[in-house]
Design a protein that fits this description.
CATH superfamily of one domain: P-loop containing nucleotide triphosphate hydrolases
Strand order of the largest sheet: 3-2-6-7-1-8
Radius of gyration: 35 Å
Strand content: 5-15%
Largest sheet: 6 strands, parallel
Mean pLDDT: 84
Length: about 1100
């Protein structure tokens, strides 16, 4: 039943009361940005100076958009453009009033729009420190470094500090304790400490001015931190106490009374619970005793009530009573989890080992920060944390809260904060300092607008709990009024109905400030959208990523055929796009990808990286080989091997410089090498004038690297790469060549926007704030890797500044405090997965399609669905959509496990740029069109499957994949029982570059041979039992090194190893014995090689056979 429209008109009107402060919860599609703009325009009509209003958001893009929309509203009002929609009419009215104030006060806003203060928090902090360089101790003209550069600086500071530790007697013992804690691993120390510096905003208050050396201060610090642990445990116990049904607790009294004679804990439970709630850290043991009665050690509800918990068989009534209580609680999964998690609740005090490590770390951290500041000062650089700390210092003088107006030449009276659910602790503190001295109803206002359900930036230290805390407790002396918007102007009613159904189920039922649990707030569609929109679930079973990608690409193609609207493919991880992008390119579907591609993944950058590494380190054999193999030179692997093996002690360049390539037989390859050597001789050594960037660019141009670019966007990426090299080179080289690709990986590029493309591709995080007509979310069933560990773990109390519990990385599994914090963090991350799904789903205005693959196992011949991985998005949706999957599975007549076929191995082709390009003829062409001049030459080292021509080779590859599948499944599946058999073969053939006019011939050959293999039942034992299929091995044969792939190793019940080589050829007519004799002679050397390498690998001499399915012959080879 479609939900009726419910208006939030009153909340919107209230939010525009400029005399009051508000915190507005505005769900997706509710027009929160428009509301913020309306309030800003209305404020403009009452302030004395426009600078009294500051609108703050979190990205430059969002700040620019809001400012442009404000200006557009003012311009449209000035031009008296008539608006039609209600919200646009209201915005125009406020803009008209603002223009009147503008004329009255002579602000000249349209010409001096810099007076419209819309900026990011980082920009505001930078403005403050720039205006007060002395009071902030920040200095002048500092350069803000990016993340990839900062991690290097953080590591260098950490290593520099380590040298100080060991050179200074008072720190040496602390350094030894920390390193011992990290297994004396210096690299691990540098990595962990760099992470600590990157997040120092969250813990630096602990060390103050470095007074941890003082014993009294250390004792006070320990007491304070232990008090925080106790408060956190008490909060946990309080939540458990609140969630335990009162009736069930009261029903347990007779059992407590019976057990109290043998266990003192139950007597205390009876006493404490009758006189007060059991809601503090003192009651952990009480609740643990209750948990022992109700759940097993593995966490399941107890089914057997026996003497192991103190109730003997004779107490039948008590056993029944306890069993009935457990049955009444069984549906309460959250209570079960809380009872089980009691096992991980830590002690309320540090043990001596924990405190020793933590205290040593806290003693050393001030030195590490001091080293970082030294590096910053020496190079006149900084990071955003340094800027924020300096800005906070400038405005945090409680004795003179008005000092900010002196610093900034204007007085802030109104602050509007967009996306306020993504505030970090540092940003929260900055805002709190900004409003220091503000009082309720004194004419100054705060306007926070955000959506806790869209808080998805924990990895950037955003804490939704801060938004929740402000809603409940206010900020500073202000208590903003709470407002909730509920109208969704974006999505069709059918979509909104499904959003409400799904997220009401999977979001937590109760809000929890401490772990960031956010409950779901329902939205209501607009009347004109009530019966619009579509939501479709696409279940996939036992598919690999490549097959899922094919499905998704087809889904995109169908959307393009059905609609002219915008389409967005949204994924959780960039890794989930690798196969999908490949399939889109195969189907020639144009798309625009938003900041997805790493520079190191781009084909136009590969050769440039190799050139850079070769110039920075002549000993880098991999780099030189990469250049020789690339189209810039274009040697075969045999030619490269012949060069590199001339002198294995010498570097590649030294060999080439001596013209040691007389053994290259190909004239074209010799010419290409001579050309390459000539170019490199002119550029390999720096001349003291040319930069590394210049030399790389000259080499690339001289070797016609421009030919490899296919569009202007690729040329832009080449320029970006060269600019990065210019930034990081020192003295004409790169100080640490090994870090080059790490640095490049920090850069993401957006594919060029094709005006003909409807399709946009991005991650969920990048999609936030955007909307599209059609949304497709693939790869829901794929898991992601867990986040990396840090040197210390901590939890913040969002309702109390600087209240934190902290622990160093646990020395083992028994460190309960470390594990407790880790579990708390995991729980918060787990809640964020709900919010990721909400953001992804709510980008859609007309249709939403979700695609997820699940594993289907078989039991007694019947299929059953395996529950998705807990770290997947599909797992979160499973309670709502699992029934759809079960129904879809039931519709499939026959499903065999693992019906998908892996991508076949395609041999790389040799590519070489034609050396004689008529540059005069092409000088008027765009550079990226010259790629048509490429000349490719097929690699002659092809795998031989049969003697019967190219089509037989293609067919043989596909047949080998099916025979491999039979061995993996350990049974043979008839063709008519294989789902999507023809489609699978067609895709495999096309992936193998079979010409379209030859497809039918190849596929007929596959059908013929595969049917013969299936009908050859006497040899089906080959696929059954233990062993290996398509096993890759490397080894020596006659003093030569070979890499081989053995089709099948079958290990029988007696332990014999059968080496079986599949041959897909056939023979017509008589003379079958002669044919077999010739085949044995033909393949004897190959099989001897296989036998010797396998025997060296397994220490077992195999029985060798050739198998011809088309002849039903298994031939023994002596």
């Amino acid at each position: 039943m479609m939900s009726a429209h419910v208006s939030d008109k009153h909340a919107r009107e209230t939010a525009l009361d400029t005399t009051k402060s508000f915190i507005v919860q505005a769900p997706a599609g509710s027009g929160k940005t428009e509301l913020l703009i309306q309030r800003y325009l209305k404020l403009l009509s009452i302030v004395n100076q426009p600078e009294e209003i500051i609108a703050i958001t979190f990205t430059n893009k969002a700040a620019n958009e809001i400012k442009q929309r404000i200006l557009n509203a003012l311009i449209n009002a000035e031009r008296k453009i008539t608006q039609k929609k209600k919200h646009e009419i209201l915005t125009a009215q406020f803009a008209t009033s603002a223009l009147k104030r503008n004329e009255q006060k002579k602000w000249n806003l349209l010409m001096s729009n810099q007076r419209i203060k819309v900026m990011t928090l980082d920009s505001l902090c930078f403005e403050i420190v720039s205006m007060a360089p002395l009071s902030s101790n920040f200095g002048l003209n500092k350069t803000v470094k990016e993340n990839h550069e900062l991690m290097k600086i953080y590591k260098e500071s950490s290593i520099s500090a380590l040298n100080i530790f060991f050179d200074t007697k008072s720190y040496r013992k602390d350094a030894e304790i920390i390193l011992n804690h990290l297994d004396a691993n210096i690299d691990k120390y540098a990595d962990y400490m760099a992470q600590m510096l990157a997040m120092r905003e969250q813990w630096s208050f602990l060390i103050g001015g470095g007074a941890v050396d003082d014993k009294k201060f250390a004792a006070r610090l320990r007491k304070s931190l232990e008090s925080n642990i106790q408060k956190t445990i008490s909060i946990y116990i309080e939540n458990l106490n609140d969630s335990f049904p009162k009736k069930a607790f009261k029903d347990l009294y007779p059992i407590f009374d019976y057990l109290s004679e043998k266990n003192e804990s139950y007597m205390k439970i009876l006493y404490d619970h009758k006189h007060s709630s059991m809601n503090s850290y003192h009651h952990v043991c009480h609740w643990s005793a209750i948990a022992d009665l109700l759940i097993t050690n593995s966490g399941s509800w107890r089914k057997r009530i026996d003497a192991s918990i103190g109730i003997p068989p004779s107490e039948k009534n008590l056993k029944k009573q306890l069993n009935d209580i457990i049955l009444s609680l069984q549906s309460n999964e959250m209570l079960n989890k809380k009872l089980f998690d009691l096992k991980s609740v830590p002690e309320p005090l540090y043990n001596d080992d924990q405190w020793e490590v933590l205290l040593s770390l806290l003693r050393l951290l001030p030195i590490v920060i001091a080293e970082l500041k030294t590096v910053f000062t020496k190079n006149n650089i900084c990071d955003y944390t340094e800027i924020a700390d300096s800005a906070n210092k400038s405005i945090s003088d409680e004795d003179d809260p008005s000092d900010l107006s002196l610093i900034m030449d204007y007085k802030i009276k109104h602050i509007l904060l967009d996306e306020s659910q993504d505030t970090s602790q540092r940003q929260y503190q900055f805002i709190k300092n900004l409003i220091n001295g503000w009082e309720q109803n004194d004419g100054r206002t705060l306007f926070f607008v955000g959506d806790p359900m869209q808080s998805i930036y924990r990895f950037r230290n955003a804490r939704v709990s801060l938004f929740l805390s402000i809603s409940k407790n206010g900020i500073g002396s202000l208590m903003p009024h709470n407002l909730v918007l509920t109208n969704n102007f974006r999505s069709g009613g059918i979509l909104v109905e499904n959003f409400n159904k799904i997220f009401s189920t999977i979001f937590p039922k109760k809000l929890n400030i401490h772990d960031g649990s956010v409950n779901y707030t329902k939205s209501f569609p607009m009347p004109d959208l009530l019966n619009k929109g579509s939501f479709d679930i696409h279940p996939l079973f036992n598919e690999n990523p490549a097959r899922e990608a094919e499905y998704v690409a087809s889904l995109v193609a169908n959307k393009i055929d059905e609609s002219d609207g915008s389409i967005a493919l949204i994924v959780r991880s960039r890794l989930h796009l690798i196969d999908i992008l490949k399939e889109l390119r195969i189907k020639n579907i144009k798309y625009s990808a938003l900041e997805l591609d790493k520079l190191t993944d781009l084909p136009e950058i590969i050769e440039l990286i190799a050139i850079t590494r070769a110039l920075a380190n002549r000993e880098d054999r991999a780099a030189w080989i990469a250049i020789l193999r690339s189209p810039l030179v274009g040697l075969t692997w045999k030619e490269i091997l012949s060069i590199s093996s001339i002198d294995e002690c010498d570097d590649i360049w030294s060999i080439l410089e001596k013209n040691n390539f007389n053994n290259i037989s190909s004239t074209d390859s010799t010419k290409a090498l001579e050309r390459f050597v000539g170019v490199m001789k002119n550029n390999i050594m720096g001349d003291g004038i040319s930069s590394l960037r210049d030399r790389i660019e000259r080499i690339w141009h001289a070797l016609d690297g421009l030919v490899l670019t296919q569009d202007p966007g690729q040329l832009d990426n080449v320029k970006l790469f060269l600019n990065i090299i210019e930034d990081i080179e020192v003295g004409g080289t790169i100080e640490d060549p090994a870090s080059l690709e790490v640095i490049l990986d920090q850069y993401r590029v957006t594919s060029p926007k094709d005006n003909k493309s409807q399709v946009n591709i991005m991650t969920i995080h990048k999609s936030k704030g955007l909307e599209f007509d059609h949304i497709i979310i693939p790869s829901l069933g794929r898991a992601i890797r867990p986040p990396e560990k840090t040197l210390i773990n901590w939890l913040e109390n969002p309702s109390e500044q600087n209240e934190i519990i902290i622990s160093p990385i646990g020395a083992g599994k028994n460190d309960k405090l470390h594990n407790f914090i880790q579990n708390f963090i995991k729980e918060s991350d787990y809640h964020e997965i709900n919010r990721l799904l909400y953001v992804a789903f709510t980008r859609a205005s007309e249709s939403l399609d979700i695609v997820g693959n699940v594993k289907v196992n078989f039991k007694d011949g019947a299929p059953f669905i395996k529950i998705p991985s807990k770290s997947s998005l599909l797992y979160k949706l499973w309670p709502v959509i699992s029934e759809t999957y079960k129904q879809k599975l039931a519709q499939i007549n026959t499903l065999s496990e693992g019906t998908n076929i892996d991508d076949i191995f395609i041999l790389p082709k040799l590519r070489r740029i034609v050396s004689k390009i008529d540059k005069q003829e092409n000088e008027n062409l765009p550079l990226y069109e010259i790629y048509n001049q490429l000349n490719t030459e097929a690699n002659k080292d092809v795998i031989e499957f049969s003697w019967a021509g190219e089509n037989s080779k293609h067919a043989g590859k596909i047949i080998h994949k099916w025979l491999q599948k039979f061995s993996t499944d350990k049974h043979v599946t008839p063709i008519d029982k294989i789902r999507d058999y023809k489609e699978i073969n067609l895709n495999l053939a096309r992936n193998n570059n079979v010409n379209e006019d030859q497809l039918e011939n190849v596929l007929n050959k596959v059908d013929f041979t595969l049917n013969n293999a299936i009908n050859d039942t006497k040899n089906h034992w080959i696929y059954s039992g233990e062993g290996f299929a398509e096993i890759p091995l490397s080894g020596l044969y006659k003093n030569q090194f070979y890499s081989i792939v053995i089709d099948r190793i079958h290990i029988d019940d007696e332990g014999n190893h059968w080496l079986i080589d599949y041959k897909t050829g056939t023979h017509e007519g008589s003379g079958i014995k002669d044919f077999i004799h010739e085949e044995i002679k033909r393949y004897r050397t190959q099989l001897e090689k296989y036998t010797e390498i396998y025997e060296a690998y397994s220490n077992r001499k195999p029985l060798v056979r050739l198998y011809y399915p088309n002849l039903s012959q298994l031939i023994m080879v002596d």
